[in-house]
Amino acid sequence: MPFMTNAVPVLLFTAMLGAATGAEADFTLAGHSTLTAMNLTNTSRETLFVKKNRLRRDRIDRGHAYSYLYDLGEKEITVLDHTLHQAEIHALGNAATANRLAIKDLTLALAPTGRRHALQDWNCEEHTLSAFLPAELGQEKVKLRLAGQVWLERKARQRKELAPFVKAVQADDFFIGAATPGQTAAATQIQGLNEALRRVLGQGMVCAAEIRLDYEGTGPMAELARRMATHTGLVYESISTSALADAAFDIPAGYSVVRR
Amino acid sequence: MFWSLGRQTHRSPWLFLLAAGLLLALAAAYGADVIRHLSLAPGWDVPESGSANARRQLQRQLGRDETPLILLFRPRPGDAGKVADPAYRQAVETVLEAVGRSPGVLGVESYFSSAERTMVSSQGDMTYALVRLQRGNDEGIGAYQHLRRYLVSDRLMIQTGGELATYVDARQQLERDVRRAEWISFGLLAVLLLWVFGSPLAAALPLVVGGVTVVVSAALLKFCTLWMEVTVYAANVVSMLGLGLAIDYGLFIVSRFREEQARGHAAAQTLCITLATAGRTVAFSGLTVAASLFCLTLFPQRFFQNMGLAGGISVAAAMVSSILLLPPLLTLLGPNLNRFALPTLTRRQASQGGSGAWNGFSHFVMRHARLVLLGALLLLGLMGLPLRHMEIGPADSKSLPASAESRQVQETLERAFPHTELSPLVLTLRTQGAAHGEAGLTALYALTQQLRALPGVSRVEGLTCLEDSLTLADYHLLYRYPEAFPLASGALAQFARGDHTVLFVRYTADPATPAARELVRRIRALTLPPAILDMEVGGFPAEHLDYVDSLAQWTPRVIAAIVAVIGVLLFLMLGSLLLPLKAVLTNLLSLSATFGGLVWVFQDGNLSGLLGFTPQGKLEGTVLVLIFASAFGLSIDYEVFLLARVKEMRAKARDDIQAIAAGMQKSGPIITSAALLIGVVLGTFAMGEVVFMKAMGVGLLFSVIVDATLVRMLLVPASLRLMGHRIWWAPRPLRRLYKRFNVSEHKEHPCHS
């Protein structure tokens, strides 16, 4: 199971943000992300709260509760670790600049299958995704392969009120990768994934995805990683437009704050 | 000494009372919050044992200071919901999300996060989640109690289980049981004391001593917490033993005072004789019982040390209160002690005097001593027979009432989740170099293979157990670049830190059975690969194995210490070398009958319907040790009451037979009354819902009954009669020593105040 498995749901979620932030009303979206590797499954409940240009994503990863607070205006992401009562603030632009990857080798193909899936009033169209990203495993040069399906809501992408978010995502300094502490080593790969999803966003908003990740290469690391191929998925199951309190997007009282 | 105390007390009773009142007020003020200073952690661990070392390494070297909690989810009655339903999942996840944010929660694992099929019941209608709680200084109880507020769902019923929940349920139930027992026993004692004494004033005195004892003991217990951790269970011991013995001692002294009053002595003389006889007996008895309880502090487990300390403190407080508080009260009350006496009861009391039934009975025993001795031995032997198949095992949630939540969870898991293995063995290992280095991984891989090959092992979890298809070479590659593989970095975070690592071994046996303990022995006997420097095995079966091994190692030493202490104190009191030996032997016989009774009831399940408990199929070791120490102490108590009177009579009677009969006549009613009173206290504790407390109450009650009847009324007098004057033998040097330190004061001197 290679490095980016935790990053993929994050990036899929990023794509989801595009659809959410465009509306005037507050949004709450609920669903699940799943990661399966080596017969081990880790399913996390994913809840997304959106209020203007502030977003909050809650997830429980192996029993640890995390919240991610995104401030698209300030271009900051704050990771709340509810077990440790700790908040880490990351500047999105810094992360992007520091890990800028030459992504000229990135190839991505997205083809509609004609099948559809409804998420309340969204009409999500199924697409086959195939992408290759340059990567490094240990000291081996390899290619990460993403293959699977993504479901896109194309009309949501075209809504006028989504323009500020689309602009933010397409800007060079936008980055929303390895915000979870300890994932920085995989930042270059995550930047590649980030780029892949930015291209997906150009086609529409993601409402679900199922992707298999593995590697191409001839060395022992690639061979091992291939045997540890990962399936990852994200499905949003409900949308709510109930009003959200501003406090839900702030760091809770009593949390220690670390700025990265 | 006691004559002198009698004189001083009679001269200045108010001074004694004032001093006692001041001390009592101070003790009450200081000890009022004792419960807040007592530790919630019981202290069962055997220090430096494999299981204790494993737990310590897990906490200190691997940073895993946690305790598991089980949350069982099931549909509400009438709801046919299944775990597979989205609404069911939604309900579970809503609860777990809140639980995950509760303070002290380190992680939550559910079927919905892991897709682990064994977490769903065979009918598909129930599922459970495992919550990892920070253990901290309170064993995780604070975190557990906090998270309970989030266990609310409109759709599902949620119950908590596991070791921690069982412990909390047991503690809460015990608190309720003890509170109820204290109120009931206090009320019953008041009635019984009135029945025994016939006078409300006389009856009130032992209760006053009992109350004072509990207050003083609580203050002393709090004082002990200044330098050592003391478990909350110690408070129960203070209540049970302190109250019971204080009333016994009070009864003994007040009875003797009234007896001497009836003989027409002057007030001062009455008090002096009472203190020199009954006071002295109580002092020796208290010292003996307290010393035997203090011997429990020789056990390495803090639990026993706490019990010994609390028991010793409460007995000593009862003894001191009886000797220092009762005499000034008796002096001030004087003839008024019998004021407001109830005529009917007074007549009954008077008829119990020197002759009557006790006289006839004692002469019967003297006449048929051989027959009585054989009969008593035969009966005691028969009662001890069930001991032959005694099984010692750990207590689990089945020792709680059927209504207890943690018990229901355990029974549901056993019934509806056939493949659940919730109590893994914990192996902490120290490796040469980093645990995920070449040598460490090679050794771990080899050890994992050895563990998997052991019979009864179903699964091993650790650095080299991620997937069956991975070879040792794969693991080397995986952990060389852990940052490239989240599974590897996750495993490192979960199982290793530097040169320390942990393996979890799942097994098919019930954790409370000998099969699980045998697996621990087998794992400990494995030959470790060279790069593993040491291995400690922990987890529930290992903890229990270490506990039982420790009992086997330390119990004989503790018994020897108790016997030695009792021997010395009884020699100092009686001046005989054989009497202490005989006392120990008869007490051991009495205890074997008590333990036989316990096996027959609690292990074999006889009378379980009547007593309202689920048969355990085993006895908990702690109960046996505590019963041994307490019952041995009580047994000696009665032995001292009887022998002191026989010795006193020996100085006045024509021969030993006369002395024994007279001693029996004089002490018999008091011993019977004392047994009746303490039996009431213990009996109310036996009404408790937790089997642990019930077994303690029933065991001690049984012991008191056997001791006050078979042993003290038949076996002891018969054996004394048959051994004749030889029983008072002691080697010449010891006799000289006894005379030199003679504290015998049964000769009546004038007591001028």
Task: Write out key terms for the chains shown.
heterodimer, A: 260 residues, alpha+beta, globular, B: 753 residues, five-stranded antiparallel β-sheet, four-stranded antiparallel β-sheet, 64% helix
Structural features, described:
The complex is a heterodimer of chains A (260) and B (753). Chain A is α+β, with helices and mostly antiparallel strands and 260 residues long. Chain A contains 6 helices and 12 strands. A 12-stranded mixed sheet of chain A has the order 7-8-9-10-11-1-2-3-4-5-6-12. In chain A, β8 (122-137) and β9 form a beta hairpin. In chain A, α1 (7-21) runs parallel beside α5 (187-201). Residues 1-7, 17-23, 98-102 and 177-185 of chain A have low confidence and may be disordered. Helices cover 64% and strands 8% of the residues of chain B. Chain B is built from 28 helices and 9 strands. In chain B, the strands form 2 sheets. In chain B, strands 5, 6, 7, 8 and 9 form a 5-stranded antiparallel sheet that branches. In chain B, α11 (267-294) runs antiparallel to α22 (540-574) and α16 runs antiparallel to α27 (691-723). Classes of the chains: A alpha+beta (260), B alpha+beta (753). Chain A binds chain B through residues 1-3, 5-6, 37-45, 58, 60, 62-65, 82-83, 137-138, 182, 185-186, 220-221, 224-225, 227-228, 237, and chain B through 86, 93, 96-97, 100-101, 105-109, 112-115, 131-132, 466-467, 469, 474, 477-478, 480-481, 483-487, 489-490.
